[in-house]
Design goal:
about 130 residues, mainly alpha, 3 helices
Length: about 130
């Protein structure tokens, strides 16, 4: 017949098991805390990444709009600076009209200057003949 181990041995083995169980529990808590920190860190990194992607998309959209505006402006400038462009022709017509009116005013002033002797009379004569 085998003899049962003494009580002291059993107590020591039980104490060892309790200590090992507590050490395992501490390891599990430490691992869980580390996992939570990693999860939180991953969440923060993911959020930063998402914000960066959204910002890149916003900038790309704005750049597209600016490019379209610049194209429109470039076409308008080209139309105004290239002979034969619609804006160029309109500018020529406005300039021609303005020069014609200046020449007409000079002729009227010269004509009125021959028949008047004061600035007020000259101004009244020119205004009457120019229709203003």
């Amino acid at each position: 017949m085998t003899q049962a181990p003494p009580i002291e041995t059993l107590r020591k083995n039980l104490a060892d098991l309790i200590a090992e169980s507590q050490a395992l529990r501490a390891d599990v808590k430490t691992s869980e805390a580390a996992r939570r920190r990693e999860s939180w860190f991953n969440l923060v990194i993911s959020a930063i990444g998402m914000v960066a992607i959204v910002l890149v998309l916003v900038v790309a959209f704005q750049n597209r709009q600016i490019t379209e505006q610049n194209n429109d402006l470039s076409q308008q400038i080209r139309s105004c600076t290239t002979p034969g462009g619609d804006c160029y022709k309109e500018g020529q017509a406005r300039t021609s009209t303005a020069v014609g009116k200046i020449l007409e005013a000079q002729l009227v002033i010269a004509e009125c200057a021959r028949s008047t002797t004061t600035d007020a009379a000259l101004r009244a004569c020119a205004t009457k003949k120019l229709g203003g």
